[in-house]
Amino acid sequence: MDSFTSFLNLKRPSSGKGDTQRKHNDQKQTENAIVISFQDVCYDIHFGHVPMEQLIVADLKERCKRITGVPLATMKLKVSGD
Question: Is residue 82 part of a domain?
């Protein structure tokens, strides 16, 4: 199965020693969240404390199914943006 990070082509940003704790916490919150768009409505999907490296595409598809009601067999995911 494809990993979530390889599907989204995510690269972990390098962190400098001068980063503040707040900046680190903000980054951790956004690291495990993505935005999906379905029928011109955007949804934030958060994966909590599970690292993106441990997630697989099936995890994303299951979340999308719960939000949109689209069956997994007919679901197509497209990646765009940064």
Answer: no
Residue 62 located in a structural domain:
yes
Please count the structural domains in the chain. Answer: 1
Q: What would you report as the CA-atom Rg of the chain, rounded to the nearest whole angstrom?
A: 14
DSSP 8-class letter at 56: B
* Tens digits of residue pLDDT in 30-49: 567 888 888 989 988 888 88
Q: Which two tokens stand for residue 25?
A: 């916490």
| Residue 79 counted as domain residue | no
Instruction: Domain of residue 69: give its range.
Output: 4-12+20-74
6 contacts 55 by C-beta, under 8 angstroms: no
The set of residues, in sequence order, having a beta carbon less than 8 Å from that of 59 and lying 6+ positions away, is: 4, 47
Q: Where are the beta strands (DSSP E) in 1-82?
A: 33-38, 41-46
Beta carbons within 8 Å of 14's beta carbon, 6+ residues apart: none
